[in-house]
Amino acid sequence: MPMVNTLTNQTDTYGWGAIALHWIVALAVIGMYPLGWYIDTLTYYDPEYRTIPHIHKSIGLILAAVVGIRIVWRLANKTPSAIATHSPLVRLGAHAAHIALYTLILTVLASGYLISTADGRGIEVFNWFMVPAIPELIEHQEDIAGSVHWYAATSLVILAGLHAVAALKHHFIDKDETLNRMLGKQETP
Question: Residues 169, 151: contact at Cβ < 8 Å?
Fold first, then answer.
């Protein structure tokens, strides 16, 4: 099975641009969730109390930029056609899951930003540059955004897990090209 050799999507497979952006976002989400849990265990006197949240916020803002690029990339590239063996219900489910994944990741990113800037201070990204804060939007912004962040992040990880299980089901049980298309492998005609 040959590898994809184009940057952009084709009618039957994803290009390297979509594949790379997909896996960068997936790995970041997988890594950020346990990091967030770890942050919740830190007390003021822990040595990592300042460094780990700084890393989490920095990765989160870089991830926001990557997600922005991914959305633009998706809008600018045609989506490969659905696999012929997928029923209309499977296609609808996949479409709904992708919309939910994008909605949840944008909610996680926005709420994380609102938590971090609720005190009016911007966010330093790995000491490279500062992302400014916006004025507080609502009373108790940090607490409300914190709850939204936790629920959205947990929902995102659960849905991403289901997404992965569905891809594995397509690969090992249905034996179709769903997973191969996102791994950069394309079926020989």
Answer: no
To which residue do tokens 């804060």 refer? 133
Reported as a single tens digit per residue, the pLDDT across 21-51 is: 999 999 999 999 999 999 999 999 999 999 9
Q: What is the number of other CB atoms lying within 10 angstroms of the CB of residue 51?
A: 11
Instruction: Measure Cα distances from 189 to 10, 84, 170, 182 in Å.
Output: 14, 14, 20, 18
Three-class secondary structure of residue 130 per DSSP:
strand
CB 124, CB 54: distance < 8 Å: yes
Encode pLDDT of 139-173 as tens digits: 999 999 999 999 999 999 999 999 999 999 999 99
**Cα–Cα dist 60/126, whole Å:** 11
